[in-house]
Amino acid sequence: MQVKLSSQNRKIISHGTVFLFDENGDLTLSIDTGNSFKVDLTIKFAEDNSQKQRIETNLSENHLMITCINFESRGTGLTAPLEIAIIDGKKIYFMFWAYLEGNAENKTKARKVEYTLYSE
User: Fold this and answer.
1) How many CB atoms lie within 10 A of CB 15?
2) pLDDT at residue number 91
């Protein structure tokens, strides 16, 4: 049996749930089409004194860096898919949501990230 996933007429080409190595670690997805196109997408988590939650993006050649600043433990992420590339004339989109798992008594927590990659 073969199952194909889609949402709003976009193919779901990859999806998953991962636990990062530490609370403010990073996650890198290397997307290689085999047609000499490769892009690396890194999600990084950081905190600063502003207490303001925000996302900063930086594209350098074939590396997209998404920095998530002051992400809360109850769950935070993108509220709409982000277009990250055009491969063979089709737009590729990325969506994610992140959580901190653990309790207040435990000083170290685990960061869980759920993600989906879509293609037109």
Assistant:
1) 12
2) 92
Do residues 24 and 111 lie in contact, with contact meaning Cβ atoms separated by under 8 Å? yes
Paired tokens of 5 = 């996933």
CA distance 98 to 19: 10
Region of 33 on the Ramachandran plot (φ > 0 left; ψ -120 to 50 alpha; else beta): alpha
Please give the Cα distance from 111 to 17 (Å, whole number): 11
Tens of pLDDT, residue by residue over 44-97, are 998 888 888 889 999 998 899 999 998 877 788 898 999 988 888 889 999 999
Three-class DSSP labels, 93-119: EEEEEEEEECCCCCCCCEEEEEEEEEE
Structure tokens at 105: 């008594």
